[in-house]
Amino acid sequence: MTQITAWEHPEPLAVGTAPVPEYGSGSLADLLPTLAAGMGVPGTSAAMPELTPADRNCVFLIDGLGWEQLRAHPEDAPFLTSLLGSSRGGTGRPITAGYPATTAVSLASVGTGLPPGAHGLPGYTVRDPATGELMNQLRWQPWTDPHAWQPYPTVFQLADAAGVHAAQVSSPTFQNTPLTRIALSGGTFRGRLTGEDRMDVAAEELAAGDRSLVYTYYSELDGAGHRYGVDSDTWRGQLMHVDRLVQRLAEQLPARSALYVTADHGMLDIPFDEHHRIDFDEDWELRAGVALLGGEGRARHVYAHPGAENDVLTCWREVLGEQFWVASRDEAIAAGWFGPRIDDRVYGRLGDVIAAARDDVLLIASEREPKESSMVGNHGSMTPAEQLVPLLEVRS
In Å, what is the CA distance from 323 to each residue of 11, 124, 293? Predict the structure, then answer.
């Protein structure tokens, strides 16, 4: 006779086991304040002492260039690979993006020098407490006053006020966007369509001042990863192009310059099957008690109907807790997911329940988010593939 034993439900992942970003010592939010402090800009401090000050600093942010993806493709990026040992002040280590590891959040952290809990862009989409609607912080829809949403000055504005030549070199389409205005403005904006032109103009802007702080950006690698995956020929072709762009800029650096190559997040490919893609729109358990679903597939903000918060938390832990770190708002805050402090205006933007993927899994919403649900490459959570980004350095 077969013995029947009681089924034991595995314990959900403990909130405290999530690898929290290195806020205050080695995150994207710490980069520009450290560079600006080295140029004597008031109101900034060197949170990353391993970086040596320079009179002219350039940050080249390559959207989607994760540390693990770069290390996995040395033949496609020989110049970048040759710089791996220079990362993070010659320690050969990466830095962390911040949570969630997604573009709007990371660019705001870079430009303001603040973690998400302070600058107030804590996800791809979050609830606006004033309206109760989901706000897309990348596309800035629906419209809200940018400077009420993010009131702090950017590091570029602080540098410009201190007499440092500050400039951003990017696509012209980004010049007047709300995200640029509240995260990356200050000094001069120079729009150029091609990557090659951006590299040449960034070098010009570096040479334009005795002290200079220049930012430039390239987005197409990220687009290729989302559409085709980081294991695709298209993505590798973009990586080859990026490698050439970095070398082009490095070879033009004026005297007394430091170039830092970094990224806003990494990425991983998620298979298209029911084991790896859980559909919120087809799962009645996960939908129960939920008023709004925010965030993105690997970093969800869940907003419950009033009074249903505890039930939603319990259900999400039971259904997803072996694959996601599932936390209440206050648990995530206490664990430091969004940084050491949460401004009052930001508290209500965070989900009642916050779910961050540990495994190679995606929580899609096929009906309400058809475009995002069809992406091959994804990011957002705290795993090394998403969270770790390079900080490669070239000096002249």
Answer: 11, 21, 18
Contact 326, 353 (CB under 8 A): yes
- Cβ neighbors of 141 (< 8 A, separation 6 or more) are 135
Task: Please give the model's pTM, rounded to 2 decimal places.
Answer: 0.96
> Under a CB-based contact definition with an 8 Å cutoff, are residues 276 and 362 in contact?
yes
**Region for 256 from its dihedrals, namely left if φ exceeds 0, alpha if ψ lies in -120 to 50, beta otherwise:** left
Chain CA centroid to CA 396, Å: 29
Contacting residues for 216 by C-beta, under 8 A, at least 6 apart:
58, 59, 60, 61, 168, 169, 170, 198, 199, 201, 202, 249
* Radius of gyration, CA atoms only, the chain: 21
Q: Residues 26-47: pLDDT tens digits?
A: 999 999 999 999 999 999 999 9
Q: Are 1 and 71 in contact (CB under 8 A)?
A: no
Residues in the chain: 396
